[in-house]
User: What shape does this take?
Amino acid sequence: MKKELNKNEVKLKEYKARAKELVGKMTLEEKCLQMLHSAPAIERLGIKGYNWWNEALHGVARAGVATVFPQAIGLAASFDEELLESIGDAIATEGRAKFNIQQKFNDTDIYKGLTFWSPNVNIFRDPRWGRGHETYGEDPYLTSRLAVRFIHGLQGKDENYLKAAACAKHFAVHSGPEDVRHSFNAKVSEQDMAETYLPAFEACVKEAKVEAVMGAYNRTNDEPCCGSKYLLKDVLRDQWGFDGHVVSDCWAVKDFHMHHHVTDGPLESVALAVNMGCDLNCGNIFLYLLEAVNKGLVTEEQVTTAVERLYVTRMKLGLFDEPTKVPYHVLSYDLVDSKEMRLKNLDAARKTIVLLKNEGNLLPLDKNKLKSIGIIGPNANNRRALVGNYEGTSSRYITVLEGLQDYLGEDVRVFYSEGCHLYKDKVEPLGWRNDRISEVKAVCENSDLVIACMGLDPGLEGEEGDEGNHYASGDKPNLNLPGLQEEVLKTIYESGKPAVLVLLSGSALAVNWADEHLPAIIQAWYPGAQGGKAIAELLFGEYSPEAKLPVTFYKTVEELPDFTEYSMENRTYRYMKNEALYPFGFGLSYTEFTINDVRIDNDKITDQGIRVNLKISNEGTRMGRETIQVYVKAERDGTPNPQLKAFSKVELQPGEEKELSLFLPLKAFSLANQEGKRVVEAGEYSIYVGASQPDARSIALTGKSPVRLQAIAKEQIFIV
Assistant: This one.
C-alpha cells in the first residue's frame, strides 16, 4: 500500500523538483560558486546574491539593532522549554523583519540572510572552555530538549515555509581547547560518543528537523569533522536520515592541509570535504572546487547534489516565491526592538538568574530599611558583561548599577566604585597597585549594605581569535575570580557590612571563599540588555528566583582531568567523583515548595516507559516557579551517577497545589555500551524525583532529599 504524503512532504517534494530544475540550468562554474557562503548572483537565471552567514545565538547578531536576549548558558539555566521556543520565535520575527527591509534596500551583505548558524549544542564538558557560554550546558538531555524547542521557534510552524533556517553546530565533539582547535584531534570512545557528544545533534536532526548542521574545526578520531565519513555520511545521513545541508565552520576546510595535515593541499582538502557531504563552505577555499572537478577529484554529480540541497533551503525560506505568498513577508521593521520585545527580554532575564546562597534570608532586600547602598565591582557598570558573544546591538543597555539606580530612585542613596579592573592589578595605568581600594573602603563605610558585582566578561572567555580576549585563546587558565576581585571582596567583608555577591560570567567560577564568608550569592550569567533591571528586581523581591545551574560549579580546577582529555571520566555531574561547590540542577527560591505523593504507574521497565506522578505545593508567601527534576540511576557497578531524564517547570501561587505527570520513555533507562549501542540491561534502577540532584551536596544546600523510587528491567532490551 502506497504511503500518502503529508502537506510538508508534498511541499518538500515540490521544492526538490524546483531546485533540481533550476540547478540544472547552471553551468559547472556557477554551481561551484554557489557553494561559497557569499553565493554570487546569477543574473541570467534571475538569481540574487545570497550570503549564508548569519548568527542568532541569543538574538539577531552583528547586523545593527536587535533584541539582545540573555546568553545561551543563561537561557539553559531557565530549564524552560517554552521560553526557549518563544525566544527562538522572537529572534526569527526580528530576523525576518530586518531581512524584509534589507531586501527592500538591496542589502545582501554578510549577517543579512535568513540562515542562522545557531544553536550551539556542543557539551560544556570543561569549565575552562571559552565558548561554553554559547551552549546549553553540560547535560546532553537538557541540551537536547532546549535545542529542539529553540529550533522549533526559529524555524516556525508554517506548513510551506521556514520562518528562518536553524543550524546545529559544531558537529561534533568540540569543546576546546580553543588555541589548538585548528589542529586538535579529539580521541573519543564510541561509548562517550553515544552517551554525551551525539545525542543533542541527533535530537536536532530527528525531532526538530533542523535545516543545517555545521561541522567543527577539530578532528574526531583522526578525521577532520568537516570531511569526516563517520560523522557526515555514516551517522548524519545514513543513521539519522538528515535531509538538509552541511556547512563547514569558517575556514575549517583549509585546516585539513594547513594544520591537520590529512591532505596535501587545497584541491585535496576541497575534494575531501565535498565528497564526504559538506555542501557549503564558510570561507573561500571552495574557489578551488571547479579545478578539483576538472581534475577528477570531485564529480559534477556531487556538486549538483550539494547545490540542490542549498537551493531547497532557499526555497523553503520563500526566496524564489512571490512575497505575497510568503506569510513572513508582512513582518515589518517596527517589530524590531519593540516594547513587546523588551518585555520578553526582561522576562527571559528574570528566568535565568540563579540564587546560590541566601543565608538568614538576607534576600530579598527591603528598600524601606535602607538609607544607602554600595555597588562595587568591575562588572557593576560593564555592558560587555550583559551580552556575552555573538551578540546584536541593543538600543539601550541596563547595567547592574543602572538597574539599581533606576529601581531605587531618590529613595536610597547609591554609592559606586569600580573596585578594581576586571583582570589587571590597577584601573589607571599610572596608578598604584589596587588603586581603587580606598574608594572601596569609603563606599563600604557610607553604605548600609554592599552589592559586589564580580566575575568575567567575553573579553576573558570566548572564541579563539575574538578581538580583545585577554587570554588570547579565549579559554580560562583556572576557575578563580581574575585580578584583584577576591581581594576587593575580602575588603568588603572586613568592613562588617552585609554583602551580596552578584556574579556575571558565562561559566562556573570556584568562589569557595565567597561561599564560606558571604551571606548571599547570585549567578546572573550574561543576562542580556535588560539584565541590570532584572537583577535589581530580584534583589528587592519583585519576583522569586527560579533558575537552576546547567553546569557544575567545581571547587578547584585541580580535580578536573586534563583539558585535552575527551573521555568523560570524572567530568560533569554525571561522572564526577568529588563533591561540587554548587551542583548541576541546583538553585534556591524565595518561597518554599513541597513535593509529595510521588508515585510511578509501573515498576517494570518495558517499551511502554514509566510515568511519574506527583503533587507540588507552594508553602511560602510568594508566587514562584519550580523545576521538577527526574534522575535515573542504573544500580550496577561502573554506571554513571544519576542522570537527568525528565524535567518540568511549574508556577504556583502561595498555598496553591498542582498535580504533575512526567514521562520516562524506555530510552531514559538505557546506557551506551562500549560499541556505542544503547541498551537497557536487566536489573534495578533508581528513579529520583525532586527539585535537585539526589547527591549529598544538593541535599545539604537545599535541606531536602529527592524521593527515590525503584523499577526493574527483567531482561536486556536494545534501543533501536
Summary: The chain has a mean pLDDT of 97.
